[in-house]
Amino acid sequence: MRRHRRAKIVATVGPASNSPEMLKTLFLAGVDTFRLNFSHGTHDDHAKVHRAIRELEAEVGRPIGILQDLQGPKIRVGTIRDGKIAVSTSEQIRFVLQGTDGDKRSIPLPHPEIFAAIMPGHHLLIDDGRVRVEVTELGDDWIEAKVVVGGTISNRKGVNLPGTVLDLSPLTAKDRADLAFGLELGVDWVAMSFVQKPGDILEGRGLIGDRAGIMAKIEKPQALEKIDDIIRLSDAVMVARGDLGVEIPHEDVPGRQKELVRACRLAVKPVIVATQMLDSMVSAPTPTRAEASDVATAIYDGADAVMLSAESASGQYPVEAVTMMDRIIRSTEQHKLYRSLIQATHPGEEHTPPHAVAAAAADLADTLHSSAIVAFTSSGTTAARIARKRPEVPILAITPDTAVSRRLCLLWGAHSVLSDDIRTYEEMVDRAIAIGRSEELAGKTGTLVVVAGIPFAQAGTTNNLRVIHMDGKA
């Protein structure tokens, strides 16, 4: 069983999709990796879903990725007298560090890290930016601000600070407990929220090690200033456009998305484009034309994966949303302009033997119109280097590591298969032909381009390129 597309689909699991029957239906409709959102649900809820996915994986005989998404710090105002207050443009209001039952002159903001870092001229965005204020004065435990965009401030509404770097760990006590639980379950990826700087990824790495891939969620403008280092230290990246779009101008989001996708391709790291991709399908069986175009744009950009959030977690039409996303991806990848746009955004080559071999394999396979590129990979890196070129033919990623096979469910173009290590050239040829045929990627004629590392079964070496004819001659 294989997908007839290159980009992958990530779907969030929630009340609309957490039954074993629905998980199977969604997988068959096109989901490659399931996202467990730890902002919601109990550990028991997530454990049941994890178990159901692993049972499904065994039933269908295909690796399925599981992404644990940590909540991260949540900055909120405190409680307001009568539950809410209305503020008007140009009005002066005051936030205080301590207190309850607040009014316009004493809105509780129980976050000392804000008072330590904020400066006059900085902005606070309340309730996803529906209310915007600018800091004019401040003291040790109070902030005076002018309302720039008026509206209603209600109890416990979220606060964003686009211009302020907070001395705040991305991992709260809840996140650390959730992380320990997720690693014990055996999740494949851990998405870290509220990443501001490279040190945040290092903090996560110290806890996660190599037990799961680390995915940096780019949702803070501060992260964009250090993006190259953040990408380098991460294993994958999520372009979290919802939160990012609150803190940077809306008109800047599309350009930033393209920059991030290209930077991840350059760094050989999978990148997911996420948030509100088919948002109207939460309550409607079809998307808007603009949403279909949005998904297609991410595919034209060369994203490894696109993600459904509420559409599959709590929406009324989760199967239809996955099916629609699959249709959009396949249609886009078959469009006559797709190849030229993908090639136009191809990052420059890295001048190292492993990258050169992988790039040569992609070019050779395209030139020969090969059935597939077969990548024997211990860590997944060989397959990722080939995927960086976005070749026209599928990538058959053969690995002896179950965890690697699951993580490859996020990688563009990769069809991952679990198989024992190879030891000789002859075994490499026989295994490539046998798996190519069994996975319906190759027939009785034609060629396969095979990439491996010598010595075999050793991670980090991509140094051997071979053309195999399907009659067994090489």
Explain what you see:
By secondary structure, this protein is of the alpha/beta class. Helices cover 37% and strands 22% of the residues. It has an eight-stranded parallel beta barrel with strand order 1-2-3-12-13-14-15-16, surrounded by six helices. The longest helix has 18 residues. The two termini are 27 Å apart.
How do the helices and strands line up, and which of them pair or pack?
Blueprint: E1 8-13, H1 20-29, E2 33-37, H2 43-60, E3 65-69, E4 84-87, E5 92-96, E6 107-108, H3 112-117, E7 123-126, E8 131-138, E9 142-149, E10 151-154, E11 159-160, H4 173-185, E12 189-192, H5 198-208, E13 213-218, H6 221-225, H7 227-233, E14 236-240, H8 241-247, H9 253-267, E15 271-274, H10 289-301, E16 305-308, H11 310-313, H12 318-333, H13 338-344, H14 353-368, E17 372-376, H15 381-387, E18 395-399, H16 402-407, E19 414-418, H17 425-438, E20 447-452, E21 464-469
Parallel strand pairs: 1-2, 1-16, 2-3, 3-12, 5-6, 12-13, 13-14, 14-15, 15-16, 17-18, 17-20, 18-19
Antiparallel strand pairs: 4-10, 5-9, 7-8, 7-11, 8-9, 20-21
Helix pairs in contact: 1-12, 5-7, 7-9, 10-12, 14-15
